[in-house]
Amino acid sequence: MGNIRHGCISRCPKLELIAICDSSPDFYIHAKSDILFCKDYKELLGVRPDVVFVCTPNLFMSEIVCFFSILRPTRSRPN
């Protein structure tokens, strides 16, 4: 799932991948050095991304989405 989302980001020139959170140590071996890597999504607290792709099993998704929605509340749409 994460690889699919990474492909979406790569195809859009206005997006920049700045951080990845993954519990798999194998993932870090193949990672680029200019991207922030962490094993716990709460480590991204200081990053405050504009967009977050949550690529986890559904069991964990609501906790993570709630965490990031508190950091950056939904803004109302312009008229």
Strand content: 5-15%
Taking all Cα atoms into account, the compactness measure Rg is 13 Å
Q: From N to C, what is the helix and strand string? A: HEHEH
- By oligomeric state, this entry counts as single chain
Structural class by SSE content: mainly alpha
Q: Given the C-alpha coordinates, what overall shape results?
A: globular
What would the average pLDDT be, to the nearest integer? 75
Low-confidence regions: none
Query: What percent of the residues sit in helical stretches (DSSP H or I)?
Result: 25-40%
Question: How would you write the strand order of the largest sheet?
Answer: 1-2
The first-to-last residue Cα distance is 34 Å
**Secondary structure tally, helices:** 3
Largest sheet: number of strands, sense, barrel closure: 2 strands, parallel
Descriptive notes:
The chain has helices at 2-10, 25-29, 58-71, and strands at residues 19-21, 36-38. The protein is mainly alpha-helical. The chain has a two-stranded parallel ribbon with strand order 1-2. The model has no long low-confidence stretch (mean pLDDT 75).
